[in-house]
User: Fold SDR family oxidoreductase from Ruegeria haliotis.
Amino acid sequence: MSIAIITGAGSGIGQAIAVKLAVDGYKVLVNDFNADAAEKTVARIGSNAAAHHGDVSNPADVAQMIEHCHRAFGAPTHLINNAGHVHQAAFTDLSVDDFDHMIAVHLRGTFLCTKSVLPGMLSAGKGCVVNVASQLGQIGGVELVHYSAAKAGIIGMTKALSREMSAQGVRVNAVAPGPINTPLVRALSPDWQAAKAAELPLGHFGEPQDVADTVAFLCSDAARLYVGQTLCPNSGDVML
Assistant:
């Protein structure tokens, strides 16, 4: 049985991933900082899902999330590190708190959640971790220096961890979406959105389902040769 924890799954990309994996037969633990949002995702899925309210940057909350998964379904076989937030500001206006909060949610959260599931995966000799990064971690973004730095860190963590874990049966990969039509992106200024869409070879943003389909592939046996990779559903924003 496949059991997935999806962080930040109360809306947007995380919700689409949770729904997709549930349709594919997974049991899913839906984590979100917003308890009501997590419950709404579970309501969409039904009995194959359970909601967990918690902050991925808080070690105690992460420990409780893992315990909840064990109680509800069993040991997680898959982890999708998706939790994040976006904040737009010129670099000269960034505060230390702005920077630290961005790193805490994205990079520290990915570290804590992954570290918490790895013992069980290593004991089983198999497992899969997919980290949701961003194309801004590859090319940077104006007024998004802290966000870009956090996402670049996730890509680096993915590569390094895959070198440690692949031979022990745990595959670690990442996705780096381009602009996706989610509440997080819609929170950015209309001018930024219009300018960004005009830069894309496809001329439009993607949808959460596009990212969910990519994550589902990386979680599947069809991706057994993929380790340390970053797949890029990004409307052509980055071409590697």
